[in-house]
Amino acid sequence: MSQREKIPVGILGATGAVGQRFVQLLTAHPWFEVTVLAASERNAGRRYIDACQWVIPGDPPADIADQTVLPLEPNLPARILFSALPSGIAREMEPDFARAGYIVCSNASAYRSVPDVPLLIPEINGDHVALVDHQRAQRGWSGLIVTSPNCTITGPAMALKPLHAAFSLRKVFMTSMQATSGAGYPGVSALDILGNIVPYIPGEEEKLQQELQKLLGTFSGERIVMPELLVSGHANRVPVLDGHTVSLSVGFDRSPTPEEAIEVLRAYKPVCGGLPSSPDRLIFVRTEPDRPQPRRDRDAAGGMAVSVGRIRRCPILDLRMTTVVHNTLRGAASGAILNAELLVAKGYV
Ligand code: NAP
Q: What is the DSSP string of 243-264?
């Protein structure tokens, strides 16, 4: 696609932690060009640089810094909208945009568990994208909504997909150690998180079960058929800036040895590759006894891969392991951009 043919895209919630990642990633994107930065009424009409407390490394790109922040109205000059809105406002506004003909790639949780809305990680369930045909037919929308999963379940889902395909996953017991950037900006107070762990993240544990089932489900042509899967999750906020770590114990129909699991993970060929944001390698298996770690492994493949390590037997279920994934890249902005690339490649845009 040449420079002149770039697709105009907008960012809803452009001033937030995930919105800023979108700005950073889309600036040099080969297919997309940012034409809309939208945020709340508080910031509409202001220059982006003035409206936004930039919290990621570097500065906002110069051509973006001077753009005017627009209010959230369905007359924005863009074809694709990346939504980094809080869930409540996403629930209210995303269908209005889809009805008005926009392609909405959402990071918010509002529509992730709705049956006719795809929940996508293209490399593990890219075929689910065809659910939008059913969505459009049912709702009469000229646009559409697709969603990216919760940032915490993203890493485990990427690691568990090949193991599920090989051994039939049945039980997952998981404990998350979630970075502070996952709470957005300003997020958790320093007085709560410095030198501390907060063992509660509202709504998070429920999302783990629902979303893992949908991600690992099979597409029947009209709906996602969920696997029989029990998930028990403990969600913790920890004083790490970026990168969600999850410790898992998992049980299968056919119990693999750690060596068999490692072989399957290493051999995994993503369902869908070759898009501008898809990584060359999706899964990095670490065999050192003390890896993966968020500071050392969150940027694997530019923050698009999951690192999996400490794969060993479990005395209660079958295997134990630890995953690390970048929560604002793979778990948010980069994941949604990859979804948009998939929609373009499949002819939906
Ligand atoms: P955030 O830092 O709090 O940013 C929220 C954004 O939404 C800001 O741009 C804000 O604009 C805008 N907004 C708030 N209320 C609005 C309203 N009434 N109308 C229009 N815009 C409004 O949050 P975040 O961490 O970026 O998260 C954004 C979404 O992505 C959430 O749904 C979150 O659950 C999801 N998510 C986050 C992560 C992560 O790692 N952080 C990962 C996956 C998914 P103003 O600046 O004008 O208030």
A: -EEEEEEEEESSPPPHHHHHHH
Instruction: Give 342 Cα–ligand 1 centroid separation in angstroms.
Output: 24
Phi-psi region of 223 (alpha: psi -120 to 50; beta: other; left: phi over 0): beta
Atom of ligand 1 nearest to the CA of 52: 46
Q: Which atom number of ligand 1 is nearest to the Cα of residue 69?
A: 47
Contacts of 221 (CB under 8 A, 6+ apart): 130
State pTM to two decimals: 0.96
- Which listed residue (164, 244, 272, 326) is catalytic? 244
Q: Are 149 and 211 in contact (CB under 8 A)?
A: yes
**SS3 label, residue 225:** strand
> Which tens digit of pLDDT belongs to each residue from 171-215?
999 999 999 999 988 999 999 999 999 999 999 999 998 999 999
Spell out the domain ranges in the chain: 3-150+332-345, 154-326
Query: Atom 12, ligand 1: which residue's CA is nearest?
Result: 13
Rounded to whole angstroms, what are the CA distances from 85 to 11, 26, 75? 9, 17, 17
pLDDT, average across residues 226-245: 97
151 is catalytic: yes
**Is the domain covering 154-326 a CATH 3.30.360.10 domain?**
yes
CATH 3.40.50.970 assigned to 3-150+332-345? no
52 is catalytic: no
**Is 16 near ligand 1, meaning CB less than 6 Å away?**
yes
* DSSP H stretches of helix in 149-257: 151-167, 190-193, 204-215
Per-residue pLDDT at 188:
96
- Model confidence band, residue 3 (pLDDT cutoffs 50, 70, 90): very low
pLDDT digits 0-9 by tens, 304-314:
999 999 999 99
Distance 66 CA to ligand 1 centre (A): 21
Lookup: tokens for 344: 């373009």
**12 CA from centroid of ligand 1 (Å):** 8
CB distance 334 to ligand 1 below 6 Å: no
Query: Which of 345, 340, 346, 342 has the alpha carbon at shortest distance from 102?
Result: 340
Q: Is 54 in the pocket of ligand 1 (CB under 6 A)?
A: no
